[in-house]
């Protein structure tokens, strides 16, 4: 059996990978001793909802706040998904068990996490979406979701007081996944605005820990 695990963290719009690295210090369980973390930074590109201003962005966003019915930019999303898949492929080539690969992301990174997990051809350990949304809706993309991908567990966490990616955008996630044929654990956090809190990250740690495959 392959040993070790891989956790990929995808940041939100205008943020950077290194700014999120402190998250890994919260994962203190011995099960994470052989975990490789990666906090990539998005490329700088023009963002429509910010009047074309250049900023770190995984794909284009047309409007903020993001609602359950916001327009999606599928072509730029699919390019971003491709770059995430290359990162996963590299870990699998190095001997990591796909079921020990976890994708996590906040906001735009959460939307990208969801799309990357759904469009990856293998079953992964899990995808955790924080304050994210469903960034595609065309049937041609939905048809590309393999039976293997549908077995990847999804954890979805969203603050009820979110004014940037509205709670309704998060709430649209579980029915969408159900329609695709997937299960999702949805956690609502009362009073939480567009940010992460320690409760969410503590739950993420135990959620990943319970899914790690041992190398025995």
UniProtKB/TrEMBL annotation:
<dbReference type="GO" id="GO:0052689">
    <property type="term" value="F:carboxylic ester hydrolase activity"/>
</dbReference>
<keyword id="KW-0276">Fatty acid metabolism</keyword>
<dbReference type="InterPro" id="IPR029058">
    <property type="entry name" value="AB_hydrolase_fold"/>
</dbReference>
<dbReference type="InterPro" id="IPR003140">
    <property type="entry name" value="PLipase/COase/thioEstase"/>
</dbReference>
<feature type="domain" description="Phospholipase/carboxylesterase/thioesterase">
    <location>
        <begin position="6"/>
        <end position="209"/>
    </location>
</feature>
<dbReference type="GO" id="GO:0010363">
    <property type="term" value="P:regulation of plant-type hypersensitive response"/>
</dbReference>
<dbReference type="InterPro" id="IPR050565">
    <property type="entry name" value="LYPA1-2/EST-like"/>
</dbReference>
<dbReference type="GO" id="GO:0006631">
    <property type="term" value="P:fatty acid metabolic process"/>
</dbReference>
<comment type="similarity">
    <text>Belongs to the AB hydrolase superfamily. AB hydrolase 2 family.</text>
</comment>
<protein>
    <submittedName>
        <fullName>Carboxylesterase</fullName>
        <ecNumber>3.1.1.1</ecNumber>
    </submittedName>
</protein>
<keyword id="KW-0378">Hydrolase</keyword>
<keyword id="KW-0443">Lipid metabolism</keyword>
<dbReference type="GO" id="GO:0005737">
    <property type="term" value="C:cytoplasm"/>
</dbReference>
<dbReference type="GO" id="GO:0106435">
    <property type="term" value="F:carboxylesterase activity"/>
</dbReference>
<dbReference type="Pfam" id="PF02230">
    <property type="entry name" value="Abhydrolase_2"/>
</dbReference>
């Amino acid at each position: 059996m392959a040993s070790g695990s891989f956790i990929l963290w995808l940041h939100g719009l205008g943020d950077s990978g290194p700014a999120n690295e402190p998250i890994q210090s919260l994962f203190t369980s011995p099960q994470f001793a052989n975990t490789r973390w990666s906090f990539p930074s998005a490329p700088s590109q023009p963002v429509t909802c910010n009047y074309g201003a250049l900023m770190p962005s995984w794909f284009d966003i047309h409007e903020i706040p993001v609602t359950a019915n916001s327009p999606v930019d599928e072509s730029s999303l699919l390019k971003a998904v491709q770059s995430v898949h290359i990162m996963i492929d590299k870990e699998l080539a190095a001997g990591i068990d796909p079921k020990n690969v976890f994708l996590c992301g906040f906001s735009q990174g959460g939307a990208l996490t969801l799309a990357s997990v759904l469009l990856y051809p293998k079953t992964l350990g899990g995808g955790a979406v924080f304050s994210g949304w469903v960034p595609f809706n065309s049937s041609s993309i939905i048809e590309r979701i393999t039976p293997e991908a549908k077995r990847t567990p999804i954890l979805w966490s969203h603050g009820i007081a979110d004014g940037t990616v509205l709670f309704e955008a998060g709430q649209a996630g579980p029915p969408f996944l159900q329609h695709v044929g997937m299960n999702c654990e949805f956690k609502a956090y009362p009073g939480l605005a567009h940010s992460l809190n320690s409760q969410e990250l503590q739950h993420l740690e135990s959620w990943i820990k319970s899914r790690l495959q041992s190398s025995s």
